[in-house]
Amino acid sequence: MTDTPKQPETVSVVVDRRRFLTWVVASPALVVAARLGLDVPSAEAAEPIEETALNLYIAIQADGRVVTTLPRTEMGQGITTGVAMLTAEELDTRLESVDVRTADADPRWVIQLTGASSTMRYLAGPIRAAAATARARLVTAAANRWRVPAHTLTTVRGEVIAPDGRRAGYGELAGDAARVLLLLVPATPKPTSEYTVVGQPTGRIDARDIVTGAAKYTLDLDIPDAVPLVVARPPTIRGSVRDFDASTALSMPGVLGVARLPTGVAVAARTYAQAFAARDALRISWAPGPASQLSDTHIRSRLRDAIGARPLPPLFTARTLEGRFDFPYLAHAPMETQGCVARVTGDRAEIWMGAQDPKFVQREVAEALGWVLAPQRVTVHASRAGGGFGRRFFAEAAVEAALAARALGRPVKLMWTRNDDMRHGRYRPASHHRILAYVGANGSILGWNHQAAIPTVELPHGFGDLLTALVGQALPEVTSALFFTLSQHVPYHFGLVSQELREVSIPIPTASFRSVFTSQVGVANEVFIDQLARGLGRDPVELRRSQLKSARLKAVLDKVAQEGQWGRALPPGVAQGVAVLEEWDSAVAHLVEVDVTGEAPRVLRVVIAADVGLPINPKSIEAQLQGAAIDAFSTTLSAGIHIDAGAVREGSFADYRWFRMKHAPAEISVHLVRSDDRVGGVGELGYPSAAAALTNAIARATGTMPTRFPLLDSGA
Amino acid sequence: MPAYQFILNGQTVSVEASADLPLLWALRDQLGVTGPKYGCGVGVCGACTSHLEGEAFRPCIQPIGGVAGTRVTTIEGLGGEGLHPVQQAWIDEDVAQCGFCQPGQIMAAVALLRKNLDPSDADIDAAMSDNVCRCGTYVRIRAAIKRAAHALREAGRAP
Ligand code: FES
Ligand code: FES
């Protein structure tokens, strides 16, 4: 970028009652940056622009194409399409003219983390602000050029148009627009009522690349001289190498080198097949990992033991109902296993990886290479990722690849095998829950006490909002508890409500999973409410409706009850279940119909109602909710991780029984309810109440009270 | 090392490899054809699904020795210049999320439609259940297969 002005000309733009600061960062092309105005220094603060914190920037190029660069990674959530839609809408340009790029790791990004369903919630405002500023500059530039009043000009499909019919494309105005000193029209985002792009069901902008095989994931990139690399790993989680003999491996065809890593022994070869063969020929003596004395039964009893004695019930309690729930460890098992391309030369490293948190990767790699104080020596390019679900917050593959690249003196492309990914990854922790519901003599609910024993969830990256991001770096050990407190709520009038996290230290690596604690705490609550309804002889929908605090939740519950025909006559062995959730500024309800007459429960029909505020792309919202439902059904019914003496039993999709086509319902219908224009999160929203609604449907069909997940698990 | 010749996406190619090299690695590492993905390497996920003489197969467990002299088609060779009707249906139904499984899903769907231009839900279950989609796009995959089947029947052509 050239001609960077020393002093940014800032324009303050208000979106949804929040103030954003926007400024031009470069000419001759027009590049506008934006960030939330909370901590905005005054325009006089002489902060060099290269170091100014920002949320994103939008560039208008001389050819008229618009490039929005943002610190987020596309992992299948459709964010690039949503961001392109917002940009096109606010700028009045064609969707096809907008490209969306993922930024490299850079300290300027206020938050460079893709998670907590935060992308649209946090970036919709800055995008609208930056685009509105760019549009105002373009209009001003045209007004100056034509010497006409700016307010008479309109913008349509990438052009500024004068009343007399003169028109100029954004590309040809971009240079002048970057040099505008005084805006002649206000930089005001459109009212949402005027939207013509946002809110329309829109297909993914990268769909063609995906269906033709042109989309490039990390290991599809053509990085010159990068050679295949695989790692021999210990039999137990976090075991380590005592010593090893590579003489046979090194003499095998295609083998280029062997390197000892903290996590195993790396082998580079001309092809992955040769690397696998050489890996299998290594003779390694392993030291057992820290969990080698632990199996599922021990873990479960340690979690149970962490639950405290029953507290005293509230006054006037006539009876106390107790629910107990066990959740398993879960592997994220993204379709693309962990992988990383790394090049290390002298005092520079370059990393290509589908990272959910590139800045974290940058820090971790710098630390591993001994450059703690100089993370800027590490460049991290965030590539398209084949699914994340929480797993790609971490940097293990990048650290391994960087160390191996340095040891072997050549660029490497490290691939984790599916086995590596299942057995040496990080896991949504197991948990045990005790919920007590206190009921008065008249059947009223006087209190709700939920104790959740959960192995500490590692969240060193924080959680996408500033508060936990800062805490994550400063005080990693409190993040998990803090996040629990911030995120876990009971949306019902249940009298005296208390929810408590009992953290248990178990040496099995963890990571957050879609919906984090709610995937356990929220699911257990919604399942126990059904048990409570049964205990009180009440209808599950009616009980929820009578106690829900939020109008949004009542509206989505009513919607699924109506669309799903709650209570309709069904054959024996077929039943419905419902559940609700409000989180990430959104509300959702699920109704699931299940048939338990076959060998395994079969999901027949799913009806979802969601209030996500302003629906940016209804198609993408529907896709996220459908996918999260499959995620929830898989892990509720059949997929769970077992720990046998410190090792993970499951090794692939053969035994980690994820839903397949034959298990999936033929239809998952999604209904959007819109209460206001705030942008709510979607990515994680659809998991918890889908899991609970399925469980509740099975409970009602079988007359049992499920307590242990996955429900089909017959193992130890 | 022996060289194996076969026709890949309409072009004759030759790869030097040992006979037991799984074709996936010849495609990805030696020929730079990256549409077929690695998802498991043991034939249980379907991410690498491609066509051998028009039938769906798994390059991750197919030794290269067995494909000498045959026609292999990967996702890159499916549509020729334009899009195959199944690819178009995938776009129209907005199937993909992360997209990683989709080349394999599409190749499996094309193989199904070559045998059966009017598949029932049960036929789709049977033909498509060896392909995992971790993002859970099954509902839309099913819709896209039906849409493509309909389009092909209307056009009176085989996939
Ligand atoms: S990679 Fe071939 S079936 Fe999984
Ligand atoms: S679209 Fe992500 S695995 Fe299928």
TrEMBL record, chain A:
GO molecular function annotation: oxidoreductase activity
Source taxon at top rank: Bacteria
Signal peptide segment: none
Record domain Aldehyde oxidase/xanthine dehydrogenase a/b hammerhead: where: 212-290
PROSITE patterns: TAT
Protein name: Xanthine dehydrogenase family protein molybdopterin-binding subunit
Lineage per the UniProt record: Bacteria, Pseudomonadati, Myxococcota, Myxococcia, Myxococcales
From TrEMBL, chain B:
Highest classification ranks of the organism: Bacteria, Pseudomonadati, Myxococcota, Myxococcia, Myxococcales
Spans through the membrane: none
InterPro entries in UniProt: 2Fe-2S-bd, 2Fe-2S-bd_dom_sf, 2Fe-2S_ferredoxin-like_sf, 2Fe-2S_ferredoxin-type, 2Fe2S_fd_BS, Beta-grasp_dom_sf, Diverse_Oxidoreductases
Coiled-coil ranges per UniProt: none
Domain 2Fe-2S ferredoxin-type: residue ranges: 2-78
Keywords: 2Fe-2S, Iron, Iron-sulfur, Metal-binding, Oxidoreductase
Entry protein name: (2Fe-2S)-binding protein
GO molecular function: 2 iron, 2 sulfur cluster binding; metal ion binding; oxidoreductase activity
A UniProt-annotated Pfam family: Fer2
Signal peptide positions on this chain: none
Keyword flag Membrane: no
